[in-house]
Amino acid sequence: MTENQLLKIAQDFGSPVYVYDAEKIEGQYNRLTSAFKNVKNLKINYAVKALSNISILKLLHSLGSGIDTVSLQEVQLGLAAGFSPDQIIFTPNGVSLHEIEQAAKLGVKINIDNLSILEQFGTKHPEVPVCIRINPHVMAGGNANISVGHIDSKFGISIHQIPHILRIVENTKMTINGIHMHTGSDILDIEVFLYASEILFETAKQFKNLDFIDFGSGFKVPYKAGDIETNIEELGKKLSARFNDFCKEYGKELTLAFEPGKFLVSESGSFLAQVNAVKQTTSTVFAQIDSGFNHLIRPMFYGSHHDIVNISNPKGRERFYTVVGYICETDTFGNNRRINEISEGDVLCFKNAGAYCFSMASNYNSRFRPAEVLWYKNKAHLIRKRETFEDIIKNQVEVDFSIKKEKQLVK
Asked: Which residues form the Orn/DAP/Arg decarboxylase 2 C-terminal domain (predicted)?
């Protein structure tokens, strides 16, 4: 998409607004499948939590993707988007047995990462095949909040507890049809990923009825010019060869599964916001926009970087600005950024806004969540309306405080 097209969307749909480029999503999907073209059975399960708009899900469904879900509601969204139950894997953490049973009733693949839940589920439903999420005890990821495969993580069943898993399987007579891991997000070193994969292969040898091995995801995308990204092509070459060798050793053609979220949608997204005011202090020039961490929390939550471009003045001289929001806490999007000169009313574009941006938006300060637009076949399609005041109060229940006082009898 061009800056002029983005500016036109901001004018037509208002700001702030999220915009997604369908062509970029399709390109990333094809890039991943191409990298693993030497694997006979490959399944890409898009991680719904990254961006859950039903139109995005339908787009990925049209490309041949499955989905990875972490809540019953995401499962229901997937079904509503047209995915069949066998195209959906349910990988929750810390949910009740009841929620897992509800998902199982819908016919989706079940992935369990807790010994207690595994034993309870296997005892009650031994006929339902289950995938097991393993914690490989490998530290990987760009931030502590997104590193999920280390020894102190709440995710997965420790590789040191494999004997316990085997006892549960033997006692319940349940079937384990998949082995899964996810080490973290923003993985730079594919050797770390390959090392964790070897742990998964060793674990898989313990289970004789597998249909698939799920290697999670966490592939890093570039966030600025010259940024490092996961070398998907090299990973595809090395892991495909190792996976094919393992299938021969195992005696069965298994499916190699991934669950990318950020990799597929992050670079497709642009967040557009208008500058309310330019504020000069004794030490800083603030560009104050019509948004805050209620719409885009990643810079404050993860310390993530989003390039910020002034699409209203792309050829203006560069100056230094600190871009901030309108929330009544510190909500800094970027400190001391070099941006083309900003005037009040200009539209700023935040890059890499496709993953974990709108999906983490809120109504904090009773602000409305923004609209979402999909750029598909050179046309802007509104895929989520901007919220209104009615949306803010529609589920609130008012109490009647107009208590009538009874008249006092005067003796």
From this structure: 18-354
